[in-house]
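Sanity check

After download, print the first record. It should look like this:
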Amino acid sequence: MTRCSALFSCLLVEVMCLIVFSFENVALNKSAWQQDTVFNYAAERGVDGRKSSLSRYGDECVTSEYNATSEWRVDLEHILSIHHISIQFATDDKDWNNDNELTKYFLGFSVYISNTTEKEDGILCFRDTTYTRATIPNPINIPCPHYGRYVIYYNNRTHPPYPEGYSDITINALCEVEVYGCSDQGKFGENCSMLCPPKCLKSRCDITNGTCFECTVGYLGPTCESESSTAWRNSSSSTTWMEGGSSTGWMDIIDIALKEQGETSNFLQKTK
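Expected C-alpha cells:
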C-alpha cells in the first residue's frame, strides 16, 4: 500500500468514526421482528449491541429459516430522523471473502425506512445490484437521511435467473443492525443539538443540513422560510401551486395538507 492510499484509508476510518459518534444508535434494545425465526435465534438479537461473535450458532446473531424471501425489521417506537444504517452480517467467524459460504445469501438485499410495518409504505434506502461474493462489505454503512419508525431489511429469490454468485434461497443472518439518528424528534445537526426550522411540516427536516422535507401550508423554500399565498404545499420533490388548477382539485390538495397538520377544511366540506 502506498503512503497516499494508506493516508486516505486512515482519513476514511476517522470520518466514519465521526459520523457514528455524532449520532445515537436509536435501534439499540428496541423491539424487532423477523420472518421464520429458527429456534431461539430471535429478531431482538440484531439490536442487542452484541457482535463479538459473528457465528449464526452463537447467541448474538439473528437466524431464520431458508426461504425464497427473508425479512427483518426494528421498531424505533417513534418516527425519528435517521442519518445512516450499519449492518453486520454473520460470518460464522470465518474470513469474509469469496470463499465464505454466507456471502451468497446476502447478495441483492434491500433496506427500507417506513412509518408502518410494510416496506411498500416507506422509502428504499438501498438495493444491492452490483456486489459480488468477493466485494460485498461487512459491515456495510448505508446513508439514508430520512425519517421513519421502522427500518426493514429484505431479500428475495423469487425471480430467477439470478446473477452469478447468488444463492437460490435466502436467510436472515444478521449479527447487528445499528440505526444512527436523533432520538429527539424535530432535531438535526451534530449531536442532534439544533431544532428543525419552525415551518417544517411536523418538524421533520434533513438530519445533516436542516432543510425541510415538506412545508406547512402557506410556506416554501428549503427551510420553509418564505411565506406565500400561492404555494400551498412544498416537498423535497415538488411544489404545488394555486395558479392554473381547478378549484375542486386545489381544495383536495389543501385538505390533504391541512389533515397532515391535524386540521380540517370547512370550506372543502361545504363545497363538496
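If your output differs, re-run the checksum step. Summary of this record's structure: The CA atoms of residues 54 and 93 lie 5 Å apart.
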